[in-house]
# Entry
Amino acid sequence: MQIGTTLTQFLADEQRRAGVITDDLRILLGEVFTACKVISNAINQGALAGVMGNLDSENVQGETQKQLDVITNEIFIEACERSGQLAGMASEEMEDVYRIPDNFVRGRYLLVFDPLDGSSNVNVNISVGTIFSVLHHDGDASHPAVSDFLQPGTRQVAAGYALYGSSTMLVLTTGQGVNGFTLDRNIGEFVLTHPGMTIPADTKEFAINASNQRFWEAPVQRYVAECVAGKTGPRGRDFNMRWVASMVAEVHRILVRGGVFMYPKDTKDPTKAGKLRLMYEANPMSFIVEQAGGMSSTGRQRILDIQPEGLHQRVPVILGSKNEVELVVSYHQGH
Ligand code: P6P
# Structure
């Protein structure tokens, strides 16, 4: 019986082939994958697990926390704090940095994650995901500061996401391209099913929350209006639109068949630079998209070049098929 290439074997082969992955990184990633498997089991229980409700609490974003937001955050902390590879962690669900307790061995990496992105979709049974990013830690491993996390996306060592959909998938980059793995529940392993994922440079599919249309800036208004005009407009071809309200699902669709995803700067809340968070949504997804031949921009700047100013900083996001993102960026430059 053919098992295929497990994620564990793949990383060992990559270490031998490319020499980029260290033993320490492989150990850390192994614990991240365990956390994603545990979360997958929790999600797939659905309402049977009795944890689909909202809590009275709010996260640092001022968003109502779902029981699963807190549970999945705790799963990540428990699975990864004992890896011996981390100096600290940061999460959408925690205001401050999480220091590795004194009774655990610390290491030279930092882990940043959104444990359950799109969690508002859970109780309507729409795909959700986990997003993670790994950074080097060069400072004092016993007292990682927020400033140690504030590294531009170009400094990421690894990034990936788990997609809890009709199947559970793990998509990963360590800077050597992008590969996708599907969870085989019979053996409890992620198995290589999507080697060498690349994003088509052109697309006819865009993703944006159209209910915000009146708040968009002129370049985005122009781009979307031209897509909607289709054959009758300057693009000369029809487009399709998708909006899942789950970034992981949108990015995965784009990795598989192309597309452009936009959560642009808008005037809906002038105090916010965007909706999505730089450290644990935009940066890891941008690393993956660029490694797959796509492009990721705020409209005015390459996202991976941004010098972060805060753990929970928000940025505009326009990512996906290179030629389409370049067109949207050109409209920003021309405006
Ligand atoms: P809206 C989920 O809350 C999220 O952070 C992303 O996963 C998703 O793309 C976006 O927000 C959805 O935002 O405004 O459409 O609910």
Q: What stands out?
A: The mean pLDDT is 95. Residues 23-45 form the longest helix (23 residues). The longest strand covers residues 109-117. The pocket of 6-O-phosphono-alpha-D-fructofuranose is lined by residues 117-118, 120, 209, 245-247, 263, 275-276 (CB under 6 Å).
